[in-house]
Amino acid sequence: MTPFLSLSAAMTKGLLRDRAAVFFMLVFPLMFLVLLGALLKDSGLSQSEIVQVGDVKVLDDIPAKERAELRDVLRIEKTDGSAAARKEALEKVRKGDTDAAVYQRPGGRVELRYSAADQVRAGNVQGVLDSIVQQANQKATGRPPAFQLRTSTLQDQSTKPIQFLTPGLLGWAVAMSGVFGSAFNLVNWRKKRILRRLWLAPIGAGSVVGARVGVNLALAFAQTGIFLAVATLPYYGLKLTGHWWLCLPLIACGTLAFMSIGLLVGAWAKSEEAANGLAQLIVLPMAFLSGAFFPLDDAPGWVRTVSGFLPLKHLVQAMEDVLSRGEGWGAALPAMGGLLLFAAVLTLIASKLFRWDAA
Amino acid sequence: MVEHAISAKGLRKRYGETQAVDGVTFDVAQGEFYGILGPNGAGKTTTLELVEGLREPDEGTARLLGSPSWPRDRTLLRRIGVQLQASAFFEKLTAREQIRTFASLYGVPADRADAMLDTVGLVDKAGTREDKLSGGQAQRLSIACALVHDPELVFLDEPTTGLDPQARRNLWDLLRQINAEGRTVVLTTHYMDEAETLCDRVAIMDHGRVLRAGPPRELVEELGCDSLEDVFLQLTGREYRE
Ligand SMILES: Nc1ncnc2c1ncn2[C@@H]1O[C@H](COP(=O)(O)OP(=O)(O)OP(=O)(O)O)[C@@H](O)[C@H]1O
Ligand SMILES: [Mg+2]
Predict the structure, then answer these.
(1) Of the ligands numbered here, which is closest to the C-alpha atom of B38?
(2) How far is CA A113 from the centre of its chain?
(3) Is the pLDDT assigned to residue A231 strictly greater than 80?
């Protein structure tokens, strides 16, 4: 085995045998994806549910084709027209189990009962039903409509939570393993005097640095694979757009940038505890400020200014672009360049602070 | 002139207020067994580190097998083996994985690494993690890692500290054997009997300087002492060192 391979193997084993490290780098971020993904799953949907009590002509007459289109925005559950059924439906509305109840009075008047608790939903239901009734009225005149407004809810993929959760949480996971991986490695090897021992072995610095970078890249790609596999499960429903594979070079550049932060932390910290604390202090706020957990669209201006300097922000944004918005090299290249530049500058600073000994 | 295995000239190293090594000059011939003795803090480890090329001397030079040890020279490093005073292991790896990793850094195959583990009597502990080895077992592993690539020149910093009598005797046999094969061995020790039985020559150090150097028996005679231990105490005093 070459020194590069055997050092990579030594690092990989050291990493995988460290249960806490495996948990924090692989399991912990994945837990976030699994839980947040499930919690926020439906929050972006605008589908309304109504209960139709008995026959309602305007609804029953909707042609099959239109009915199918309507299904995205409105789900109709039909019950019999008895007084008991009506009472039950109204009770459901009151409890919030359904968005509205609709029934027809003798004489053709359509009654819609909705709860005002959720204004948005109430408005939605009202709007949809109103347009159905208007269309029916217009048809009843027997003349072609003079004006037509074709509405269709634009189901913007990127607003589905999983579409921003995946790049955000994946970016955060890669940032954690990059920063912690290199910081811990550096501090631990210094403490264990392995750095000095390696100095006395006939190997180049390239083998050591290369092995560490290689292990971290492999880890980051593993994280990416697992994240995408989970997020694209039908239950979570992530839709990958055409250039999704561009997230791989992005992840690679991001890993280098985060490792350079780790190098800086490791060069400064004297103990693993100090490295751990400092790394946490950097990664967690960075994740929040970079929109890894929630989008920053509504964030105050200063937050967005600060986040402009954070590598994670650019990684997350570029990954959102290629994973969910169908963008290509144009979105990926500037981010990759910035991440590499960031990595180069920090590595340079870290090399000035580098110490062989713990003392 | 036969090339010296080690030729150190005027080595000096200062740590802040401490002059750890203060003008050390010595030569070690090829195939010689050389011992460095001295009280705690005398500067033995620092001297070895300067000679090995682990640290840059403030002043002076050290040549190993004809090449300067500083700056780092990878072809030279291939020919020397070093056991550091405090053992240096990869975290969470077993004894076998440690020595195989070190072996591969020198391009030595795994079976040779396993054989070395056998030589130091660690076959039973091959699957044990580095942090679960006893002090003496870790010491033996560290020595095995230093010897795995058959170096021509071996540096051992207190190799027998923490070893039980059996392991100590075994290590003596091993060191005598590799010395008999023509390899040069340099060690530091606090055991005077060890220095007397193993070393062709010893240097007694204190305060970063070599006080006296020569074959143990000659030193005993010259100073009119009974044993090397008396020589040591006479040269370095009887007070405690921190
Ligand atoms: N990395 C260091 N930084 C600062 N001072 C050091 C360092 N290494 C050694 N010293 C100091 O240099 C002096 C010589 O230390 P050295 O380790 O060479 O002694 P030694 O002879 O090997 O002692 P021992 O028998 O205890 O191993 C000591 O006073 C020590 O405190
Ligand atoms: Mg010492």
Answers:
(1) 1
(2) 37
(3) yes
Spell out which residues line ligand 1, taking CB within 6 angstroms.
Answer: A 357, 359; B 15, 18, 20, 38, 40-46, 85
Atom of ligand 1 nearest to the CA of A357: 1
Q: Which CATH number fits domain A48-141: 1.20.1250.20, 3.20.20.70, 3.40.190.10, 3.40.1190.20?
A: 3.40.190.10
C-alpha of residue B195 to centroid of ligand 2, in Å: 16
Measured CA to CA in angstroms, residue A106 lies from A54, A55, A57, A102, B39 at distances of: 12, 11, 11, 13, 110
**Its pTM surpasses 0.90:** no
Contact A258, A339 (CB under 8 A): no
CA distance A185 to chain B (A): 10
Smallest-distance ligand from the CA of B37:
1
3-state helix, strand, coil in chain B (%, to 5): 40, 25, 35
Q: What is the pLDDT of residues B42-95, one digit of tens each?
A: 999 999 999 999 999 999 999 999 999 989 999 999 999 999 998 899 999 999
ipTM summary value: 0.90
Interatomic CA distance for residues B230 and B195, integer angstroms: 13
In terms of Cα–Cα distance, which of A67, A80, A81, A70 is closest to A48?
A70
For chain A, the average pLDDT equals 86
Chain B residue with the nearest C-alpha to that of A207: B105
d(CA B163, CA B168): 6
A-B Cβ pairs (cutoff 8 Å, strict): 68
The domain spanning residue B190 has which CATH number?
A: 3.40.50.300
Closest Cα in chain A to B98: A10
